[in-house]
Amino acid sequence: QVRPVESGGGLVQTGGSLRLSCAASGRTFEYYAMGWFRQAPGKEREFVAAISRSGGLTNYADSVKGRFTISRDNAKNTVNLQMNSLKPEDTAVYYCAAASSWPGVVPTAEQAYRSWGQGTQVTVSS
Q: In a 3-state reduction of DSSP, which class is residue 26?
C-alpha cells in the first residue's frame, strides 16, 4: 500500500500558477492509479484529475480541463498537478490519493481511492 504526501500549496493571485507534488511511499506505486481531489470550505470533496498506472491515460474535471495537467514519474514515486490560469474558485484543500486498479483504468469516484494524503491548501486571491 502506498501513502501519499502532498506539497506545493500556497497563495497565488488570479491567473497565476502552482505546481502540487505528491510523494508516495511504498514499493508498489506503479500498481496504483493516482488522483487529485479538492475540498472548498462548506463544500463536498470533488474530483479534480486522475492518471492511470502507466501515466498513459488521464481524466479531468470539466472545471479544470485545459488549465490543469496531471503527470507521474513511477521511477520517483511521484505525481504532480500543474495548475495554470488559477481562479478564486480553485481555492481549496487539495488531496492526493491512490487507487489500486487495473492497467488503463482512470478512476474518478472518490470511493475507488483507499489511500489519502493529509492535504495541502491552495488559495487564489482575486
A: coil
- Cβ within 8 Å of residue 52, ≥6 positions away: 33, 58, 101, 103, 104, 105, 106
Q: Which three cell numbers stand for residue 74?
A: 513511477
Nearby residues of 83 by Cβ (< 8 Å), 6 or more positions away: 17, 18, 19, 20, 64, 67, 68, 90, 122
In total, the chain counts a number of residues equal to 126
50 within 8 A of 37, measured Cβ to Cβ: no
**pLDDT by position in tens, the chain (length 126):** 899 999 999 999 999 999 999 999 988 999 999 999 999 999 999 999 999 999 999 999 999 999 999 999 999 999 999 999 999 999 999 999 999 989 889 999 999 999 999 999 999 999
